[in-house]
């Protein structure tokens, strides 16, 4: 088990956003986390990624307990993420954005940087090289010096992918990677996610509303509703689960 | 850090070398002292550029760190007296290494005090400690809390300076602060020393901002949550920058104490802190060169008394205008102006294109 979540709970004031959810993700799996709006998916993401502190429960990544750890530590342990509204650093170039992704795997600090030490220069070259390779991988070669604001939305998403991949994650959390994408772009994202799992061996956990993408891509699907898990299993099984149909359509399947 | 920045450094070195000679020729040697003071201001502002522009933290109390450095140096070299412990081995060791020095004050009383060059590092350590405490307490807080805390810090330092009379001399301050050897009271030598420190600091900071650390700092500015998700330890970085900027300000304060031989509570004033923030804002926040030029020019303007009683009014207007319409300071406005100019020129060319018989490909190349 790469990711194990045990009885996770998180409340905001009186609202129980996540109410005792347990799940585990296997290495090499593509898992989809679905559910109606307000089901608690993004909250779970934020707790798993360390951005929010849970009220109860445990999260462990590759055997390490990461429940109380901060996002930067969790990134070092091998979990990376993308954001629902693509959050690139608008104040730097596309290449520099991806280079930030290398931060967690590199270590030259103030001293090496301030004195432009030889090991600092060497590391910088390696970082730039790796960043360019990741941009090639996601299909954006040669866009190094572009400003993120000048890219199309789909391309911005790809840059965010490259940045997250540059951290060399074991587990990649994708927050609605297909949102705002047209049919052709969704297919590209589908193929990209497959490549990430098949070629790089990265485990994927994605939150997604686009059902065709979920059905096509996911090995297993976990369904949340109002903070609780209501179903889990292969996509076809979950799709025909009456409780799942009910929350999405508001009535039991005919 | 790129050849352009090195050219800038070269130009700075040249300017520093030429300044005393130019002032001499213009019979304006009195401005050398003002240049000294401006150099110290630049030093503090460079630290603030890193803190405000790169780490994104607003410090409304940085004059407090400057004052901490100035007063620490003053007290250790002019007020303290370790004569009672003269036989203890640390004191004897200190005297042997010339960290401490013996002498008699103007009343004939013997004293054992710190040597100026030894007091400066201690002052920096003191400032680092204060910044560490302040930072640990406030850096995890959101939004304005850090700024308010630094404002409070500035008030505390000012108040201590005025009220803790036995330590700081109160409103009268501390006088007869010993000079640093070789520098003495010579404006020319101080000019070289201060601006040499500025140049070295510029080089180190330019290197840093172009390195992995600089990129991490910019990522904090670009989106703190995303930066954290990429493994950037934002709290630790912000703390380090805060402490470093405090140490730099304290060092400038030490130099001030030994140059002017007198330290009073006015160096800790809150308006001082606001001026510093104004200089950095006019310079473009995350712009080291902009900060240097803005601090130099504005401080010289301030010292020249050109605006007389209206000085604070003028600076208030500058700050409001910059915040409203020139977020990236003067450099940003210059860039916008340049781009506007380019657009106007190309539009004029386009009109000619329509009138003439140029092919569309060439027209595209122009636009």
Write up this protein.
- With 254 residues, chain A is α/β, with parallel strands linked by helices.
- Chain A has ten helices and ten strands.
- Chain A has helices at 41-48, 71-77, 94-101, 110-114, 118-137, 153-165, 183-200, 211-217, 235-239, 242-249; strands spanning 3-12, 15-25, 30-34, 56-61, 64-65, 79-81, 171-175, 203-207, 220-225, 228-233.
- Chain B is an all-alpha fold and 367 residues long.
- Chain B folds into two domains: 3-72 and 120-310, no CATH class; 328-367.
- Chain B is built from 16 helices and two strands.
- Chain B has helices spanning 3-25, 31-54, 62-79, 89-96, 116-138, 145-163, 165-168, 187-209, 212-222, 224-229, 234-260, 270-283, 288-304, 311-325, 329-355, 360-366, and strands at 100-104, 110-114.
- Chain B has a two-stranded antiparallel ribbon with strand order 1-2.
- Chains A and B meet through α2, α3, α4 and α5 of A and α8, α9, α10 and α11 of B.
How far apart lie the N and C ends of chain B? 32 Å
Stretches of chain B where pLDDT falls below 50 for ≥5 residues? 356-367
* Element order of chain B: H for helix, E for strand: HHHHEEHHHHHHHHHHHH
Helix content of chain B: over 70%
Number of domains of chain B: 2
Report the major sheet of chain B: 2 strands, antiparallel
Question: What structural class should be given to the helix and strand makeup of chain A?
Answer: alpha/beta
Which shape of chain A, going by the Cα principal axes? globular
Q: What's the number of extended β-strand segments of chain A?
A: 10
The biggest beta sheet of chain A is recorded as: 6 strands, mixed
| Average residue-wise pLDDT of chain B | 87
User: Which strand order spans the largest sheet of chain B, edge to edge or round the barrel?
Assistant: 1-2
Instruction: Extract low-pLDDT stretches of chain A.
Output: none
Q: β content of chain A, as a range?
A: 15-25%
């Amino acid at each position: 088990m790469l990711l194990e979540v045990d009885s996770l709970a998180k409340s905001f004031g009186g609202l129980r956003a996540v109410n005792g959810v347990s799940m585990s993700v296997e290495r090499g799996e593509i898992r989809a986390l679905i559910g109606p709006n307000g089901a608690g998916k993004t909250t779970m993401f934020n707790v798993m990624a360390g951005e929010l502190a849970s009220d109860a429960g445990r999260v462990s990544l590759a055997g390490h307990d990461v429940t109380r750890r901060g996002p930067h530590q969790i990134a070092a342990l091998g979990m990376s993420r993308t954001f629902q509204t693509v959050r690139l650093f608008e104040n730097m170039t596309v290449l520099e954005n991806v280079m930030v992704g290398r931060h967690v795997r590199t270590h030259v600090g103030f001293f090496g940087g301030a004195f432009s030490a030889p090991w600092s220069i060497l590391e910088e070259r390696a970082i730039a090289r790796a960043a360019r390779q990741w941009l090639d991988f996601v299909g954006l070669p040669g866009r190094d010096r572009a400003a993120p604001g000048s890219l199309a939305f789909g391309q911005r998403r790809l840059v965010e992918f490259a940045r997250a991949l540059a951290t060399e994650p074991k587990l990649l959390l994708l927050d609605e990677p297909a949102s705002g994408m047209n049919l052709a772009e969704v297919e590209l994202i589908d193929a990209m996610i497959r490549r990430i799992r098949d070629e790089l061996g990265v485990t994927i956990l994605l939150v997604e509303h686009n059902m065709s993408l979920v059905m096509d891509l996911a090995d297993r699907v976990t369904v949340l509703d109002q903070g609780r898990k209501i179903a889990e299993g292969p996509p076809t099984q979950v799709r025909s689960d009456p409780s799942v149909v009910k929350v999405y359509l508001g009535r039991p399947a005919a | 850090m790129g050849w352009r920045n090195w050219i800038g450094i070269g130009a700075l070195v040249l300017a520093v070398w030429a300044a005393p000679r130019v002032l001499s020729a213009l019979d304006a040697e009195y401005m050398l002292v003002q240049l000294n003071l401006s150099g110290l201001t630049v030093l503090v502002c460079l630290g603030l550029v890193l803190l405000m522009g790169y780490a994104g933290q607003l410090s409304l109390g940085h004059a407090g760190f400057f004052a901490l450095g100035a007063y620490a140096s003053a007290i250790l070299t002019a007020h303290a007296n370790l004569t009672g412990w003269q036989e203890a081995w640390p004191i004897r060791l200190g005297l042997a290494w010339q960290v401490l020095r013996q002498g008699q004050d103007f009343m004939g009383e013997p004293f054992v005090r710190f040597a100026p060059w030894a007091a400066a590092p201690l002052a920096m350590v003191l400032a680092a400690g204060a910044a560490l405490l302040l930072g640990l307490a406030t850096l995890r807080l959101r939004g304005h809390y850090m700024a308010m805390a630094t404002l409070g810090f500035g008030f505390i330092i000012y108040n201590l300076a005025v009220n803790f009379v036995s330590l700081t001399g109160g409103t009268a301050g501390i006088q007869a602060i010993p000079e640093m050897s070789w520098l003495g009271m010579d404006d020319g030598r101080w000019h070289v020393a201060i601006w040499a420190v500025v140049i070295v600091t510029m080089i180190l900071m330019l290197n840093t901002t172009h390195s992995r650390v600089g990129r991490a700092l910019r990522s904090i500015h670009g989106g703190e949550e995303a930066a954290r998700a990429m493994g950037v330890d934002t709290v630790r970085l912000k703390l380090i920058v805060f402490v470093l900027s405090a140490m730099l300000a304290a060092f400038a304060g030490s130099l001030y104490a030994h140059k002017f031989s007198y330290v009073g509570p006015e160096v800790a004033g809150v308006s001082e802190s606001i001026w510093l923030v104004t200089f950095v804002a006019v310079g473009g926040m995350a712009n080291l060169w902009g900060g240097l030029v803005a601090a130099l020019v504005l401080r010289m303007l301030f010292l020249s008394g050109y605006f007389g009683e209206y000085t604070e009014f003028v600076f208030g207007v500058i700050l409001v205008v910059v915040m409203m319409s020139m977020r990236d300071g003067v450099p940003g406005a210059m860039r916008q102006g340049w781009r506007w100019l380019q657009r106007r020129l190309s539009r004029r060319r386009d009109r000619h294109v329509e009138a003439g018989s140029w092919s569309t490909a060439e027209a595209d190349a122009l636009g």
